[in-house]
UniProtKB/TrEMBL annotation:
Its main location: cytoplasm. It comes from Anhinga anhinga. One of its GO terms (biological process) is Ras protein signal transduction. This is RASF1 protein. One of its GO terms (molecular function) is zinc ion binding. SUPFAM superfamilies: Ubiquitin-like. The lineage of its organism: Eukaryota, Metazoa, Chordata, Craniata, Vertebrata. One of its GO terms (cellular component) is microtubule. Keywords: Cytoplasm, Cytoskeleton, Metal-binding, Microtubule, Phosphoprotein, Zinc, Zinc-finger. It is found in: Cytoplasm, Cytoskeleton. The keyword Metal-binding applies.
Length: 252
């Protein structure tokens, strides 16, 4: 298609399949709706109910209420030391590809391959969801580390952030969790409703990009992508002005 700007490494062509039969944006209805509704509140402070402090009796009562409301076997359980364990569900909504160790090939590696950590990159499927069994004192940063280990992602954990997602008045709100916040505690306070609270792993979008967290091949690849985007943007601008010029000449 002349409108397609997909770029693929020549060695990967046989491994990639594209379905371009549908119209532009087909299959992305959920993402479009979500994007319209989603709003990053950009608030660092948790809401009032998230600040609530529970004593041992209140924790025990909350766990009983939580377990009575769920329709699965993903129960929370109270431990003898006063902590508790349970499950959280995290949706991965990553826009950029992630890096994983390259698949080992048969045969002896050449001298150039010795001491070099090979990587390959791919996009995680849309809507990927993972359940994690964690403790009440497990921190958000530890949840990120666990998710990356589950998918053997070797990218720097600082590239990612855990968000809490909530729905209110037909509006979706996101708040980035601090590293030391405890997701299971938030899950217990909110109850099992995914509309009240759910967890999403996204890229760590900060005001400043930590370029030191990227490898040299990644940085070179970003430069190539920026160059292609710039060239495409210039091409579109020239095409637009050429069309305007042609219409004005026809009007004359």
């Amino acid at each position: 298609s002349p409108d397609c700007s997909f770029t693929c490494h020549y060695r990967c062509r046989a491994l990639v399949r594209l379905d371009c039969s549908g119209p532009l944006g087909a299959g992305d209805e959920d993402d479009g709706t979500e994007q319209e509704l989603e709003k990053d509140t950009n608030v660092d402070e948790p809401s009032e109910w998230e600040k609530a402090e529970l004593d041992q009796a209140q924790v025990e009562q909350r766990i009983k209420e939580y377990n009575s409301q769920i329709n699965s076997n993903l129960f929370m359980s109270l431990n003898k030391d006063g902590s508790y364990t349970g499950f959280i569900k995290v949706q991965l909504k990553l826009v950029r590809p992630v890096s994983v160790p390259a698949t080992k090939r048969a045969g002896r590696p050449g001298p150039r391959a010795q001491g070099v950590k090979r990587r390959t990159s791919f996009y995680l499927p849309k809507g990927t969801v993972k359940h994690l069994h964690i403790l009440s004192h497990t921190r958000a940063s530890e949840v990120i580390d666990a998710l990356l280990r589950k998918f053997t992602v070797v990218d720097n954990p600082r590239k990612f952030a855990l968000f809490e997602r909530s729905e209110k008045d037909e509006q979706v709100y996101l708040r980035k969790l601090a590293d030391d916040e405890q997701p299971l505690r938030l899950r217990l306070l909110a109850g099992p409703s995914e509309k009240v609270l759910s967890f999403v792993l996204k890229e760590n979008e900060t005001g400043e990009v930590n370029w030191d967290a990227f490898t040299l091949p990644e940085l070179h690849n970003f430069l190539r992508i920026l160059q292609r985007e710039e060239e495409e943007h210039v091409r579109q601008l020239r095409h637009r002005y050429a069309c305007c010029r042609q219409k004005m000449q026809e009007a004359l």
